[in-house]
Hints:
single chain; globular
Amino acid sequence: MIGREVSNCSRCPRLVAWREEAASKPPASHAGEAYWARPLPGFGDPDARLVLVGLAPAAHGGNRTGRMFTGDRSGDFLFAALHRAGYANQALSRSIDDGLELDGAYVTAAVRCAPPDNKPTPAERETCAGFLAAELQALTRARVLLALGAFAYEALWRLPEGGGGPGRPRPRFAHGLELPLAPLAGAERRTLVCSYHPSQRNVFTGLLRAEMFDELLVRARELGA
């Protein structure tokens, strides 16, 4: 139900125009491919203990393949790490039917359409907030929310399901930051953990290294136990 609502959304005219323009003008490496060019729902294990929240789909990654972090450099980094940590059955994610399965993890994003220059606006984040809240409510076994970047951190923090909602002082974003969260109804303890986003720039500059992210996933496994 949530996935259907997400994929049929057209409430942000700027994002609708951009995702469709990207699909109509693919780079040579993707010439002739049929693009998804719609909003992306999250995916993964419905019994996940770990929920990873990114920024938004990439114009020629998720916007092309129809699955979060699939078919781009950020996804290459992310799924290789999830595989090493035992959350994914394979290290590569190239297409929506490539056999990738997640065990104990769920991947989603603050904004569901590819934004120009990978920069969604606060208003677009708020428009998508209900989708993220609904996913978090449905993932009743989730114990760790891993924010991939400051934008995802803020998106989570503004939700009662993800941090406490407006009015609660928000600590400054930092890689490795851990914040205890109030449990949802009937749930156990939860923790919000922050990481630098696995963007190509962050990885190439060394701001985020594989061993740094691996350490967070080990910690997430401990917190979710």
